[in-house]
Each structure stands twice: as structure tokens, then as C-alpha cells.
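Standup, Tuesday
Yesterday: got the pipeline producing C-alpha cells again.
Today: sanity-check two examples.
Blockers: none.

Example 1:
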Amino acid sequence: MNIDCIFLGHTNEGYLEQGIADFQQRLARYCPVRVKIVKERKGKVADQVRIDTEGRDLLEQLEPKSFVVVLDRTGRQVSSEAFASLFEQWQDQNRRSVSFVIGGALGLSKEVLAAADVVLSLSLMTFTHEMARMILLEQVYRAFTILAGTKYHK
């Protein structure tokens, strides 16, 4: 299984970038993980116009036939064990590619949400979209260690 993480904008905080790189490296033993950064749109445009434009940009990064998981505050929350079970299901379904999409501070367009096969939420709490990236990669790593039966998950 290949994993693509499609993120809107660069991670500005160095400690978060280090954490993302660390979990990306740890995941390499289980599967290839590619991080794709989509440029944030700047300028004096209405928020909804920006959300829609950025949404189209995010959708253009999806691989054909990829299983799309969007992270959004409106999504379903799952435990780490249930998240691991989702990966097991996707593997059993021979999903070759899973794409995780995280938008920016303004959220995601309706088109991005509609393109999702699954919409998940990391928590009822609010995280910056930059923090959500690292948390996502840590949870993906945790899911693979749960499935492998390693000691990482306690």
C-alpha cells in the first residue's frame, strides 16, 4: 500500500516539520509515504473563493483510483485500534493507494469533502492544521505497529 499525504501549505514550525519527517521515516519500514504540499492561495479574495480554489488544487493531487481519506472536524472519530482496523480492511480490499487530505486554516471545500471515501476527525479538540499533519502521521505509524504487534502501542 502506498500512502500520500496531501497538505495545504508548508509546515512553518520546525519542530512539527521534524516530527513529520521522523514519522515519515519510521513508516518507511511498512509502506512508502509521500508528502505532497499544495501551495496556499494568498491575496485579497473572499474566504469561500479561496477555499474553493485551494480545494481544486488539492483534488488535482489525488492519484487516480486512490482511496481518499479527508480529515475534517465534521468527520467520524475512531480510536487508534479502530484506525488500525481500517488499514487492515483497506489492505484486505487490495487498496494500492490511500490519500490523506488535510486542508488549511479555513477548512475544506464541499468538493473535497464530496470526493472523500472516508471523512475522519482527529479529535473534538481543535488543532492547527500543521499539528494535525504530525498527529496524522503518528497515528498512521501507530496503526501499522498495532497491526504488526510491536511494542510501540501500549
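Example 2:
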Amino acid sequence: MVRIAATSGRVLAALLAVQLLFGINYVVSKFVLHAFPPLVWASGRIIIASIIMLAVALLLRRKHPKPDRKFFVPLIFFALLGTVINQASFLVGLNYTTSTNSAILNTLIPIFTLLIVTLRGQEPATPRRVLGFVSAFVGVLIMRRVEEFTLSNTTWIGDLLTILNCLSYAIFLSYGKKFLEKHDPIWTTTWLFFYGSIGLTLLAIPDYSRFHMPVINSQLAWAMVFAIVGATLLTYFLNFWALANAKSSMVALFIYLQPVVASFIAWIWMNETVGARTVLASLFILIGFVMALSPEKRWYEVLLGLGRAFKPTKI
């Protein structure tokens, strides 16, 4: 029997995979959201993901954590933060603000996370780490075209909801770490999906009452499959696993890679040109990562860690 040990390289690889899957999902989800209301789709995909994850846990015969209040009660809190409030405020907020505002405000997640873990005494805010976060933050702002950010009476509700999404997920990354360290990642993900599906379905009831199932062609079907398996099951599981084996701020920092991945995908799939602005922004982000991830290591040691990402370890 073989398992993947939680080395630093494997954690980095898991977090990179999450950003790649999310980057692809930005393109794929456009097809799905043309056919489904956002909350209906968020509810439906997490219900299906819950069923699949439960089947995986049972087939693998994973040992269930002790079914007591110490396991089930905190899950309610973490599901609210990590799925219900997070997804609902992001999706609804996007409807009431501009895509530029949403993209820029979502870069607050790592900043909020670093602030929370520092105030709680979870992690030290060394000058090098802070400069690394600032460098990556500046890079994302350049790539997201911060000069197009606008504040108006028509966007403030959406902007506040987007900020709530960032704060909710940052709190989850900080407070959920110890819980995820203690319990089986597959069962924890299963129950977080289950609780999340209840919350999102309750929020989606008004949309469900007006919803009519669209005609599902092959293109839409494949987009739905990817969104459920790739952008929900794998991303959440890998993120939860990484959070159990890495610092909360490190997991949050990788969110800054999403615009880089999205630009790379647009260049590969859509023949979009890569301008000097994108290159400059990517450079700031890369410098920020090298400074923030391993302040005690040299830059090439950080990169070489990925080369050892998938070496199996026998139990």
C-alpha cells in the first residue's frame, strides 16, 4: 500500500494543482452559469460532490472520526465559513459589482489571513514574509488592472459581499487548521460538503422555485463534470489536506497564483497575447512567493522542493 507523505514539496504541488484547477474553472464555469442560476448550481454541485466523497470514503474503508460533539459541532462553524458564506457571498456579490472589482477585492484573502494568524499568534509576521505578501499583492493588483477599480452606489453591496467572502475564508483558514490536522481529510471533506449543501440549498430555495432544467448538450455536460470533480472535489480536498500540513498563510498565499494561471490558460487556449504588464505582474508575484514561502531557504531550494513532490512512501 502506498500513500503520499506530507512533505513540503507535495504540499506545494497540491496547492499548485488547486490553482490550476481553479484557473481552468474560470473558463469552464462560463458555460455552466449560462444555463444555471449561481446559487442553484452551487447547491447542486456540492450535493453531488457530497455523495461522491461519501462513496469514496466508504470504498476506501476510511476510519470515521469519533462521532461526538467535538467532531460534528465545529463542522457546522467551518462549513458556514468555508463553503456557505464563502460561496454565497462571492456568487451573489459578483452579481452586484463589476468583475474587475470582484477580482481585485478577492486578493484580500491572503492579507486577511496573514493579519488573523498574526493577531492570534499562530504565525510570526517576519519582515521578509510581510514583504513577500506585499510583493505578490502588488503583482496581482497590476495584473487585475487596479486602475479600473471603481466605487459607486451601484456596486457597494456587491463589494461588501465580496469582502465578506474574503474575511469568511480567511477566518476558516486560520481557525480550521487545527481541526483539519486532527481528523481524516476524506471524512472531514465529506461532512463539510454535506453541511455546506444544506446551507447553500436553503439559500437557493427562491431560485429553485423559478428554475427549469436546461437542455444539457455534450459541451455543458463535460463542463458540469469538471466543475464537480475538478473544481469542487479535488480543489476542496487538496486545499483541506494542504491546510492540515502547512501554514494557513501559505495556503492563502497561493491564491495569488490564480490570475497567473488564468492568463497562461488564456494564452494557451484562446491565443491571447502576453504583454509586458502580465510579465511584470508575474515577476512581482514570483518574487513574493520566494520571499514568503521559505524565509530560511534560498530561492532555488524552494523551487527544487517541487521536484520531490510525488515520491511515494510505503506504509
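Quick observation on example 2: Strands lie at 2-3, 313-314. The chain has one domain: 2-314.
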